[in-house]
Amino acid sequence: MRRASTLAFILRYVILGLAIAFVASLFAPGLVDRLRGNTPGPTTARPVEAGSSSRERGPVSYAEAVTRAAPAVVNIYANKMTTVRQYRIVPDPVTRRLFGAIAAGPSYKKQEQSLGSGVVFSADGYVLTNNHVINGADDIQVLLFDGRVAQARVIGADADTDLAVLKIDAADLPTIAVADRGDVNVGDVVLAIGNPFGVGKTVTMGIVSATGRQLRLSAYEDFIQTDAAINFGNSGGALVNALGELVGINTAVYRNAGGDGRQGAGQQNAEGIGFAIPVTTAKAVLDQIISHGMVIRGWFGAEYADPSALNPVRPPGTPIQRGVVVLEVLPGGPADRAGLRSGDILLKLDGEDIVDQADLRSHEAALAPGQVARLHGIRNGVPFSVALTLMQRPSNYAGT
Predict the structure, then answer these.
(1) Which SUPFAM superfamilies match (predicted)?
(2) How far from 6 is each of 10, 14, 63, 76, 330, CA to CA, in Å?
């Protein structure tokens, strides 16, 4: 009898101990490990799920980036006076054919206003915007972040890149932070800051959709494509990265409404494919205009194109042909004096491979007038090499 009571006493405490251990394992598992003398090692840590780093997750908000960049983005109102004439269409077809439309009254002046945006690059008042925003304007007003309005004057413009530099006289100007090297990658988050439709400063978000886009709108193009909304009034505004650093100047949108579907961001009916000028290009143009009042570029005096332009149908499996083919040599120009001919295929410039016509045009422009360049190519199947002395590209040159 005494043995049975002793056994029952032991069992009660064993059961109580097991119950306490069970509860402890549920609510304090680390305590159980410490009591056992076990220290959790690295293998007991919870595995990190793929794509869970802070960079891959991205920030919850871009407010800090906007706070950093937005004060340096300004609204631009460019006004110009145009002469409007009133005409009356003559109903008689014979008279209409002889004299056309007949003036129906005196001409009158009409003021037109172009909306756009700009970016303050220096505290002393240099502002970069698009040329098409201020082209032909008689009066340019700049609305600053704090509500001040400043009169702007044009320092210089470059139609080849659609950029213009303005100067305003104002104190305490915030300036834009420029991204190091201006590098952007497809998939990077970007923010477009500007004044769409004149509603006021607006921020839209997207990603970099592509780089190095060519729209054939001008001679020098290397557009960043983005799906961040860029609309009427955004032209000249800032495209910034997630840190609020400038990576591009918003300049064009793409629409699908007939025609070739291309237009500047200063026009309406955009459909969401936007383009920006890379900040490296924009900064180079800004520096040249401030220094010289214009952009100075080297010039071969020849028109050229990708070989695919002459033979757009490429048989499957054939490699892409590098280099450019000369289409026209302008009389008296550097290429003409060096002996280049129409039909020549150019493969190297100063020992470096020529990728395509955009690559050659960029390197040509970067060379200084008076500099000697050596071109290697093929003429009628025979390799050749010429040295030519570059000229300054004429400011009124209409070629590409």
Answers:
(1) PDZ domain-like, Trypsin-like serine proteases
(2) 6, 13, 73, 96, 116
308 as an active site residue: the answer is: no
What is the sign of the dihedral through the CA atoms of 59, 64, 69 and 73?
positive
User: What is the percent of the chain with per-residue pLDDT over 90, rounded to a whole number?
Assistant: 53
Q: Bigger pLDDT: 260 or 329?
A: 329
Indicate if 93 and 127 belong to the same structural domain.
Answer: yes
Over range 225-233, report the average pLDDT.
89
List 117, 158, 160, 235, catalytic entry: 235
Q: Is the pLDDT of residue 190 over 50?
A: yes
| Residue tagged active-site, from 114, 117, 132, 359 | 132
- The Cα 196–Cα 147 span in angstroms is 17
Say yes or no: 119 and 161 in one domain: yes
- pLDDT per position as a tens digit, 172-188: 899 999 998 778 999 99
303 belongs to a structural domain: yes
Query: Residue 231 in contact with residue 253, Cβ under 8 Å?
Result: yes
Residue 58 to residue 2: CA distance in whole angstroms = 72
d(CA 371, CA 391): 8
Please report the pLDDT score of residue 50 as a whole number.
44
DSSP for 111-132?
A: EEEEEEEEEE-STT-EEEEEHH
The catalytically annotated residue of 162, 344, 356, 359 is: 162
Domain count, the chain: 3
Instruction: Please indicate whether residue 132 is annotated as part of the active site.
Output: yes
Weakest mean pLDDT among 126-130, 249-253, 283-287, 323-327: 249-253
What is the Cα–Cα distance from 286 to 131, expressed in whole angstroms? 12
CA atoms of 35 and 141, how far apart (whole Å): 76
306 catalytic? Reply is no
For 175, what's the count of Cα atoms within 13 Å in the CB-facing half-sphere?
Answer: 11
User: In the prediction, which pLDDT does 97 show?
Assistant: 61
Residue 130, domain CATH? 2.40.10.10
